[in-house]
Amino acid sequence: MSQSSLTLLQQTSELRQAIRRKEHTGPTSGLATGVMQGNVVILPADYANEFLLFCQNNPVSCPLIGVSEIGDYSMPMLGKDIDMRHDIPEYYVYRNGDKVESRTDIEALWQDDMVAFILGCSFSFEHALSQAGLTPRNIEEGVNVSMFETNIATTPAGRFHGNTVVTMRPYVPKDAIRAIQITSRFPKAHGAPLHFGTPEAIGIKDLSKPEFGDAVSLREGEVPVFWACGVTPQLAIRNAKPPICITHAPGKMLVTDILDTDLAVF
Amino acid sequence: MSQSSLTLLQQTSELRQAIRRKEHTGPTSGLATGVMQGNVVILPADYANEFLLFCQNNPVSCPLIGVSEIGDYSMPMLGKDIDMRHDIPEYYVYRNGDKVESRTDIEALWQDDMVAFILGCSFSFEHALSQAGLTPRNIEEGVNVSMFETNIATTPAGRFHGNTVVTMRPYVPKDAIRAIQITSRFPKAHGAPLHFGTPEAIGIKDLSKPEFGDAVSLREGEVPVFWACGVTPQLAIRNAKPPICITHAPGKMLVTDILDTDLAVF
């Protein structure tokens, strides 16, 4: 492993420790760039197999990169000493499909039958886009990425069903083409976009009013480009109504020890 | 080599022979699919080095796949027994930059100082698009692809300069994204598109009036997608005004023995 990779993993470990100590409770976008960040879904075992199938059925919006053993809050395949009860800056807690609270740890809520799922996140390719000179507008403007619910149905699995959530980043067409090439290399981070251009074609009414995250500016000649988003499961959870479900707060992810490039293709 | 490849090369040889006997003088689009077809530029040696640099400077519109020895009308790196004087269905002859005639052979015009250049052609990726279920509209409608002069300047070399010519194929955004991925695999056939969406952003006024080839229909929800085109050199030749230059007629290409897949990446 190179010296720069070692330095990055040291930074990653420090960031995860700072999150664990609740010193960092904000978004993780732009931090520890170069390692994968993950969307989090924690469910009771009774719902876990159906959710596993839901991810399998919807690999673009739900690219699974890690699943815990039942009741085990570590995640050894994604990083040393990960504690799923503490290592997310902010958790959302859903009961019967409704979001009831947000917390900075879930130690008091952890159950012996819980299974944690980690899904790849578009932050992985944001790093690659920035390195190619195509810095996403949300990073330029220092805000959370814009996220929208679409009318693109997911493939249901058991009690899990709902529409796909997308992130949006604006580019001029020439740069959008390059962005499609670059993000295609990262299938475990949602890969290529689902759509570009007309928001209404996928059921988005107003780009200035994202359902999650922040609005970003569109400039002359730019088109909105839409990628599948790991917030998609949160809509399916609302529909599945499990007695309890815990997710990350949008934009505040699990920081792993896996390099983005480790899961890149080509 | 597989049996199917042998069969394809037999078909290719027969097509080239039919062209040589002037039995086939039409477009080569959709014929001998699976082998590369080439754009043709034949110039006197005095202009050849500058044109070689022009191709090097503009590799997306002018992806060189073969260059002959001075005065040699064979092209052994691209096929057995190719005769550049006879093996194109229709030639255009330019004198001092003006097109003066079209011919079905150039035996009477061949000079000892001539150099033939062969450039990759988007027909190579049309085959891959069709296999992926994204059959280009021009193939569906049985016409020549639409070609347009843009306001995108090429990088000049000596006396050669001019704007880029593009081909246009309409797709809905979802399919355009897949088409970008597929055509990216074929850098020697112009690779990924240069632009999509607004034609006016690249200087195209009316999609129903292509400068070369035929118009195709745009359907509800589709956007035009634009790829660089091997007709680009013909504009540069008009500007360079060599005493003589011979090209293929748009859509009527040199059929080579090289499989499309031989020059694909990934």
From TrEMBL, chains A, B:
Enzyme class, UniProt record, top EC level: lyase
Coiled-coil ranges from the UniProt annotation: none
UniProt xrefs under InterPro entries: D-Glu_cyclase, Putative_hydro-lyase, UPF0317
Signal peptide start and end residues: none
Any one GO molecular function term: lyase activity
EC number in record: 4.2.1.-
Transmembrane residue ranges: none
Record key words, sorted: Lyase
Gene3D superfamilies, per database record: PSTPO5379-like (3.40.1640.10), PSTPO5379-like domain (3.30.2040.10)
SUPFAM superfamilies: PSTPO5379-like
Family as reported in the entry's similarity comment: Belongs to the D-glutamate cyclase family.
Matches recorded under HAMAP family: Hydro_lyase (MF_01830)
Protein name: Putative hydro-lyase Ga0061065_107179
Organism, scientific name: Marinomonas fungiae
UniProt lineage: Bacteria, Pseudomonadati, Pseudomonadota, Gammaproteobacteria, Oceanospirillales
